[in-house]
User: What shape does this take?
Amino acid sequence: MPADPAAPQARSANRPAGRPSRIAARFAALRAEGRGALIPFLEAYDPDLATSMEILRGMPAAGADLIEIGVPFTDPMADGPIIQAAGQRGLKAGATLAGALAMVRAFREGDDATPVILMGYLNPILSYGAERFAADAAAAGVDGIIVVDMPPEEAEVLAPHAKEAGLDIIRLVAPTTDAARLPLVLNASSGFVYYVAITGITGTKSAAPEELAAAIPRIRAHTDLPICIGFGVRTPEQAAHAARVSDGAVVASALIDTLAKSLDAEGRPAPDSARRVLDQVRALAQAVRAAR
Amino acid sequence: MNTPLTRPNTYRSGPDAAGKFGGFGGRYVAETLMPLILEVEKAYAAAKKDPAFDAEWRRLLTHYVGRPSPLWFAERVTGHLRAQAAPGLGAKVYFKRDELNHTGAHKINAVLGQILLAKRMGKKRIIAETGAGQHGVATATACALFDLPCTVFMGAVDVARQQPNVFRMKLLGAEVVAVESGAATLKDAMNEALRHWVAHVEDTYYCIGTVAGPHPYPAMVRDFQSVIGEEVRAQMMEAEGRLPDVLVAAIGGGSNAMGLFHPFLDDAGVRMFGVEAGGHGIETVTGHAASLTGGRPGVLHGNRTYLLQDENGQILEGHSISAGLDYPGVGPEHAWLHELGRVEYVNATDEEALSAFQLCARLEGIIPALEPAHALAHVLKLAPTLPAETLIVMNMCGRGDKDIFTVAKLLGEKF
Ligand SMILES: Cc1ncc(COP(=O)(O)O)c(C=O)c1O
Assistant: This one.
């Protein structure tokens, strides 16, 4: 439990004790500003380490409130073609979990405030060693993790180590998560809740605005954690709407699409690849900031 | 081994309520799929208790599939091996002839069970993954029979090397989706089927072709395939008045092996061998598909099991001459039986399988699929070392029609 109940800590049994949370602090600040968060996504090492590092470093100034970094995996079961391709480019460029942690460490040299969330699959973490990963991730400056194929039922391998290290475990809630499951999922969450807007994989379709507007209160009734919307949020208008009906918008495939289109036939970046992605982040951020 | 395993009183009670066999198995899926997996589990538990469900499945097995499949004393193979063995050695070799099933492999046993379950659940569409195409053909067949639309995901590489089965599926009315993502083989077909399922959760049932995937699939497919071992028990009592001494089966995901082994797991006198695909040899890095003898534990496709993976936890492509064996994982129950030492896992190379394939055709007049040719390759090594009264049963889990073009090419024949 936080010593000061007024401190910007989300109320959850799983909020790791000890380290002050960049995630909670950022959402508290945004609440004070009266607006939602923009959470852009990048895939580590896509298309190479230097370009992805340039994008990562440029994101806060472009208007990113939190940043999500995808860790490439050979078998990304919940991802559509756009993020699959990004992961394959990343792997080809030598991405590993250790490499993704090193990116965060380098990012933290210039930014100690923007929360960073790693999103990936369980096997690379198990291979690295769950306990060692949690400790190294926290030390590198990672604030939260999303492990797509680790439902609450299977979290025992990692959750105690994450808690010990002060890492939030951000969970996905899907349209298929029924009333009976919702408390189980939310009780195993900390940091914020990631609402998957569609029954589907990343980068394929978008939810109708009225579906989102109806879905969020259903979750809100069961948690005090911030709720952000991802999957299918592509345009500034969609991001603004998502940030209005929830606490933030995650944009991934649309940004990766822009990056992918800037690459040459061999997958090499153009001199302005990072700038094009960051310009898009800027446009999204403006829309989110104007949303309320 | 990172989970201490204690020897259980019975090897036949798994999985536990969490879908675990020791530390293996489980339900490692995205939240979107989780409610669906739980729904399948509930529906299967109810179906299992319903005598009408069992009766309908058995009616189909008898009159549509042609079960029980014969237990054949392979007299010429036995004689051939005895001729090379020392006096008094050379085990008696039997084939469990699941290659005679309608559609040509064991896959249909579990497909019919699953399609009946899908009907019970009110599902309107069926999807499946396939490697060699046998599971795809079996699923397309059952969907034709039950008038359900069927989509089969198949790696583009496998589509190219298993053309006859691709055409069969199309004749049966199924849509075949060539999967280009990842390495474009079986594991990617399974990824794509899972992705499709996530997007069509309301009306679609995913019919998995082996004892892998999230709980309850490993247990459910095993239960259906156990008809193989149950028949062998009765047939061997009839033929020899006792149980077999040795069971041998090929391992891709492990369903034909689990179906043969499971009814015998608590019979201490029965030795069991699971034969993985040794490809170019398990000392090569990606030249084989031997997950148990050449891999280590990890999580893929919804379960924790032995996997072919690199030092960073990235999944490696398997290789085998047989498209049905080159899966980089293996059913979690096999992982558990491996660590307990109850089943011995060995491997046979491409070359050994190819030569067993030819030998079987000439000696028994049976053209085996390349998958059971791996099991036979091990029988050829093992039988001459065992006393003549030893009874071996090998699962002839598929016929070789689908493989003749692959084999012809390897033998330098032109059509
Ligand atoms: C004839 C045959 N045997 C074996 C296999 C491997 O699967 P399993 O290990 O689940 O029996 C296949 C898979 O396609 C097959 O077609």
User: Anything to note?
Assistant: Residues B 105, 131-132, 134-135, 210, 250-257, 324-325, 369, 371, 397-398 surround pyridoxal-5'-phosphate (CB under 6 Å). The domain at 20-63+107-221 of chain B is CATH 3.40.50.1100 (Rossmann fold). Chain B touches chain A at residues 18, 26-36, 181-182, 187-188, 191, 194-195, 198-199, 201-202, 297-302, 307, 309, 311-315 (CB under 8 Å).
